[in-house]
Amino acid sequence: MPGLLAHLPAHLLAQHAPTARVAFGALGERTAADLLCDAAAVAQALPEAAPGARVLIGIRRDRYAFTAALLGAWARGHDVLLPAVDVSREAFLSLAQGPGVAAVLHDTLSSAALPIARILAEARPERALQLEQLVGDSVVHMFGRSGRLSAQPMALRRSQLLAEASDVGAGLQLPAGALYLPTSLPETRYGLTVGVLWPLLSGGAFVRDDPRAEGSARQLLEHVPRDASARVLVSVPAQLRALVRSQPGVLPRLSHVISASAPLPRVAWSAITAPSLRRFDLYFSERAGALGHRSDPDAELRALPSAAQSPAADGGVRRWSELEERVAWLEGVLDAALLPPETEQVAPHGACRLAVLAEAGLTEAALRSEIARAVPELSIAELMLVHPHTAPADPAGVASFSGGLRGLRRDGAGRHDRTGLQRLFGLSAEGAPLSRELGFGASNERDGKHVTEIAVPVDYVYFAGHFPGYPILPGAAQLSEMVLPCARRARPGLGRLVRMARLKFQERIMPGDHIQVVLTFPADPKQLDFSLLRSGSVCAAGRLSFEPASSREEGA
């Protein structure tokens, strides 16, 4: 183990004494010496590095454990693979089995992974640690804005990420030894460079706890050491909006607020204020990195020295993001998601689709009037207004608005996932309208069974996202769109569905299929058995139970 320690980078932790803290929070404080020892323990647990070998890190519950895993992989000479924030379990396991993955470090999987908690529990502090520059320049493969299996990760060298972190810290003149409260996860470029690497470069410390929980900012601040002279919140506009509206007393306890992913509208600058609070709008692209910053809404963006491109180069996307935020800050609006025209990703002109989560009293007419007043340059082709308890049906399994930050999924940059928005509006990945209707054909009673013929459109909306290159009609859609409509046509007096049993999904239903829905009604009038057949083969089957029909329904 001591030999591995010699390969850790000298520039990281160079500003920390061995006893200086690097992490804090409800999970406890850890020092620089602890981190070096834990990183060495991780390195010791990993296999020897081979050319192109990668360590997949999926650690969400503890930023400190993530950092120890990252440094341990670097110390061992491995490249690192970081999944997207919203990656599914299936996609993560697919990555784990991918080419070049030498090991998996995870904090929730029970198999196929090295248990990070056990590794760290067995670490033993070293009395003397010597730091030297790493040999080579490991690559961090990062998905950034997409957790889809078809997405290609970015390949960023360690030296590039460290230079970017240093550039942001110097450009914003962030104080040495500050305590950082990142609400962006370290799997994102922003969360990694500003929320992890910069504190380690500058003698600072970061909070360990998972920031995704509701009210997390206040909870994080409750565990900030009282001797801290500077407290820096690293966040995105949507999280800041929720913070200001729900926890206004938090701001005076901060010294700096950094916001990235979308421009802060003027109303946000006015709301995010407190005595001696320094505010920064950081122009940060998950693909291009940190490009520029400003500390005043009227100021021009100041480019950072390491910027790979001019801040104006991505101005179209940034402009759309600003318009979305301006809508989201309107009175009565809880959240907003803007879908620009497919052909308008660079120049923000033309009509967009807009989904808005609003308080119960806000009507569509009032909202349109307020948008016309406050955001006059925004042209709306379709407006979807939703209230927290009346969320729209989700045609493709994407979480629709349900309230606050738990609403429509956001990507690693804090922006709403475009694919999810397209599905919410019934559009394909290319922006074309998808079919929402099945082709119901003839129905008849045959041998005591009720049989309905159904044609499945090739572009049926439920195939969107399930899955690229391998379309499957989800089981939930088979039940809600095929079985239940046929059941209520055959037996109009059925009550509410209360139980499903014996469910079997044996063969996938694909675009263009012709399906027979076969219903059998046993002696109990509140039950039915169903099967979905394609050319005589059973695709799905099961039993459904319903509550008794109301007297009103029975008399109808």
Task: Fill in the keyword field for this structure.
single chain; 556 residues; alpha/beta; GMP Synthetase, Chain A, domain 3; 3 domains; 24 strands; disordered N terminus
Summarize this structure briefly.
This protein has 556 residues and is α/β, with parallel strands linked by helices. The protein is 27% helix and 24% strand.
Spatial separation of the terminal alpha carbons: 79 Å
DSSP strand (E) fraction?
15-25%
| Count of beta strands | 24
- Poorly predicted runs are 1-8, 146-150, 344-348, 391-407, 551-556
Helix content range of the residues, please? Answer: 25-40%
Counting helices, strands and paired strands, the structural category is: alpha/beta
Q: Please work out how many helical segments DSSP would assign.
A: 15
CATH class of the largest domain equals: Alpha Beta
Largest sheet: 9 strands, mixed
